[in-house]
Amino acid sequence: MPRPWPEYSAREWARLRPLVERYKYARYQALVARHVRRPAAKGDVAALRSRIAGRQVLIAVAFNDPSFVERQVALVARNVPGCLHLIADNSTDTATSARIEAAAIAAGCAYVKLRPGPWRKPEDGGRSHALAMNWVWRNLLRPARPLAFGFIDHDIFPLRPTNPFAPLEDHAVAGQVRDRSGGRGRWYLWAGFCFFRFDAAEYRALDFSLDWAAGLDTGGANWFSLYRHLAPAEVLDAGMTIESVEHDLGDQALRLEWIGPWLHIGNFNVPLSLPEAVRRELIALKQRVVDERLAAALGSEQRGEA
Question: From residue 57, how far is each of 4, 137, 153, 213, 237 by CA, in Å?
């Protein structure tokens, strides 16, 4: 979203930055508007709306990793009872999508396969993710009118019983609050864990796009449509705690992220300055830790059902 006119400096005006930003914003919005009008690649939209209506809906945007989805649907079914778990498949590989769909259907989840958007490079992942969220909002959530809804990443898992919708009894929105606006006071909810009471968002033109002009990541454009209108008491910041997997690396590399009982795997970045053999060993270390944590949670689930 372009900044208000008074926020631009004389130097920025001399370089026509206000006009350039508005041109880029208009072009971006045209691409989004065209994409969200496209039908789903797979999934009965009318049937999905019927399942969503009046429910608490947890939407996971899946991308090219069926193993994450397989474990997430099992843990959500066990630890987040009562909600409808919707898998919005934003994957680019056909075989991967087939496996994700099978996992979703077997677990009783709702499933929709989204069509590929105009941004397909690895560095455009945030834009692609935002486009998926916007499609779900405009084609499923807004028409169906759920009681409440939340978006989560496909690599975040509830390891203990929890109700992420509970804060919405006293708040309009809840999630992990982030502010990267360079002192402008524009915050947003992290797209990987954000929850909304529908009646607080129903008449707002929600836009889960990045607000690149303000330095805000996926979901940042909701500052102008929703977040700036909320009083502090209407927002619940769930926070985040960090668990280091390898303490000697520094710079929070190879970490796990926790939002209450929710474990977010995050990336597997290690410093490029390290020897390749060391980098592979560290990545394998984090993978082992992740697999052990999820296996333990899934094992306790199975014992609980025995």
Answer: 35, 11, 14, 31, 20
Residues 72, 156 contacting (CB under 8 angstroms): yes
Q: Which CATH superfamily is domain 45-237 in?
A: Spore Coat Polysaccharide Biosynthesis Protein SpsA; Chain A (3.90.550.10)
Q: What is the 3-state secondary structure (H, E, C) of 220-250?
A: CCHHHHCHHHCCHHHEEECCCEEEECCCCCC
CB-based contact 107:74 (threshold 8 Å): yes
At residue 215, the 3 state secondary structure works out as coil
Segments of the chain assigned to CATH 3.90.550.10? 45-237
pLDDT digits (tens, 9 = 90+) for 59-83: 999 999 999 999 999 999 999 999 9
Residues forming a β-bridge with 258? 241, 263
Q: Are the CB atoms for 205 and 225 separated by under 8 Å?
A: yes
Q: How much is the pTM?
A: 0.87
What does the block give as tokens for 119? 């941004």
- pLDDT tens for 107-128 read 999 999 999 876 665 545 567 8
Q: Are 134 and 209 in contact (CB under 8 A)?
A: yes
Place of tokens 């109700």: 163
Query: pLDDT tens for residues 181-201?
Result: 556 678 999 999 999 999 999
Residue reference for tokens 């169906």: 144
